[in-house]
Structures are given as structure tokens and as C-alpha cells.
Design brief:
By secondary structure, the chain is mostly beta strands. It folds into 2 domains: 123 residues, Jelly Rolls (Sandwich); 76 residues, Immunoglobulin-like, CATH 2.60.40. The protein has no helices and 19 strands. The strands form 6 sheets. A 5-stranded mixed β-sheet has the order 1-3-8-5-6, with no helix packed on it. The protein has a 4-stranded antiparallel β-sheet with strand order 2-9-4-7, with no helix packed on it. The radius of gyration is 37 Å and the shape is rod-shaped. It starts with a strand and ends in a 5-residue tail after the last strand. The structure holds calcium ion (3 copies).
Length: 247
């Protein structure tokens, strides 16, 4: 059984290793040597789809590195997904985007029978996963506060999680906030330790439900006709109107 490893450094020594994997005449043909000789095997499960690097750089001998899809158990010949011989000097390195949650088999060996020694396998991944918001508030539909062209709204600010850490959550408004009549979009932006960002947005709509009021509405007017006329000039002071919203 391969030894399961995760991110970080794993020291290895292939001095006593035998060649236990299939020949790879297509995928691992470097300088006409197609095996990954004197190999040891590891199992790795990717935690994200972000770019991963599997590096043997700095190893003490001429390494060879192969990665297989580990979903189907022991790999058959000509089934290698990635193979590398000399990336950094004679040491090997492979970078690719795995599938999160998928199992991979990592085969560390040498570029020749009897080519073996000590080294370090370093698995690292770019953190491309943005934070995930919890409790992004729902859309709010409000009536104006009495005699105001606005409404006070209070909400619970959302939180966020990340596969590393959330370094900041910045909101466009702070609750409770006085929103004007109309629709305002509130935005929160969460940033993780690698600068990946994600946003939570919700709209707050305030409806003006208060009718205008008239002041000094004139009373009914009863007046005689003007002299020798069949009608009368009537004057009054127009009322004024007030509303909670201007315009
Ligand atoms: Ca090599
Ligand atoms: Ca992240
Ligand atoms: Ca109104």
C-alpha cells in the first residue's frame, strides 16, 4: 500500500527500493529510458482544484517523478498522467491542477536501474479558493419611517470562512443604517490571506408609503355676483402641500 501524504515536505530514501511500477514507454520516455526505476509510492488527496506543485528539487540523485490517477487502484502500464525527469538540475517537478477530493498516486524513482538516493518531496498548492460567506442577509423591502424619506434598517453582518484564513471583511454600510427611499445595494467583500476575494450583496428597498398633506386648504366660498355681472371674481390663497419626500 502506498503511504498517504499531504501537503508539505516528505523526506524519502530510495536506496533499498525496487522497481514496482509499470513501464511507461510513452509518458515517461526521457533519453530512451522509460521506467521510473527504484521507486516508492505515495498516495495524495487534493484539497482544492488550484494549481499544485510536486517537487523533488534538491534531491541527491537523478530522480524521476510520475503521477497517476489513483481512483482505480494500482495503475496499469501506459496509464501515467504526468511524468518528469529533469526539472531542476537532474531533479523532477510536476505542476498541474488536480481535482479536489480526488486520490492521486505519486511515484518517486530514479532515471535508471540502481539510480537512487535520498531526497525530499514537497507538495504545495496555490490558494485560489476565495472565502465563503455565511449568513449573507436577504433582500429587505421596507416602508419609510413616519415623516422621513428613509427607513432605519438593522441586520446581522455576515461572517466568512476560508480554506486558509479570512484577513478582512469590509462592508459598504454599517448596521443599523438609515436607507433613503429607493433601492440601495449593500456589499461585503471578504479577502483571504492570499488576496482572493468574494462578495456578499443584498438590496434594501425603502418604499414611500406616506401621502402628501395639504395645509391651509381653503374653506368653501360663497360670494355674490359682481355688479351687473352674472358671475364673480373669486380669490383664495392656494394651499401648500408637504410630503415626507422632496420633489
Ligand atoms: Ca532526473
Ligand atoms: Ca482561500
Ligand atoms: Ca410621500
Amino acid at each position: 500500500m502506498p503511504f498517504e501524504i499531504t501537503y508539505g515536505s516528505t523526506s524519502f530514501n530510495t536506496t533499498t527500493a525496487t522497481t514496482d511500477g509499470p513501464d511507461e514507454p510513452t509518458g515517461c520516455n526521457f533519453n530512451s529510458f522509460t521506467q521510473v526505476a527504484d521507486d516508492i509510492w505515495y498516495e495524495f488527496i487534493a484539497l482544492s482544484n488550484c494549481s499544485h506543485t510536486f517537487s523533488l528539487c534538491g534531491s541527491s540523485y537523478d530522480t524521476k517523478l510520475a503521477i497517476y490517477d489513483g481512483t482505480f487502484g494500482c495503475p496499469a502500464a501506459a496509464n501515467v498522467s504526468f511524468c518528469n525527469d529533469d526539472f531542476c538540475g537532474t531533479s523532477s517537478e510536476i505542476t498541474f491542477n488536480p481535482t479536489a477530493g480526488k486520490r492521486y498516486l505519486i511515484r518517486v524513482g530514479g532515471n535508471g536501474i540502481g539510480v537512487n538516493g535520498a531526497g525530499t518531496l514537497v507538495i504545495s498548492a496555490v490558494n485560489c479558493q476565495p472565502p465563503t460567506f455565511n449568513g449573507c442577509p436577504p433582500f429587505a423591502n421596507l416602508s419609510n419611517n413616519n415623516n422621513a424619506c428613509s427607513a432605519v434598517y438593522n441586520w446581522t453582518a455576515p461572517t466568512a470562512n476560508d480554506n486558509t484564513s479570512v484577513t478582512s471583511i469590509v462592508g459598504s454600510h454599517t448596521p443599523p443604517f438609515v436607507f433613503p427611499v429607493g433601492t440601495t445595494t449593500v456589499t461585503y467583500v471578504a479577502t483571504d490571506s492570499e488576496g482572493n476575494k468574494s462578495a456578499c450583496r443584498f438590496d434594501v428597498t425603502v418604499n414611500d408609503v406616506q401621502n402628501p398633506t395639504l395645509t391651509a386648504c381653503p374653506a368653501n366660498i360663497t360670494q355674490d355676483t359682481d355688479p351687473d355681472m352674472c358671475d364673480a371674481v373669486v380669490t383664495w390663497t392656494p394651499p401648500t402641500a408637504n410630503d415626507n419626500c422632496p420633489g
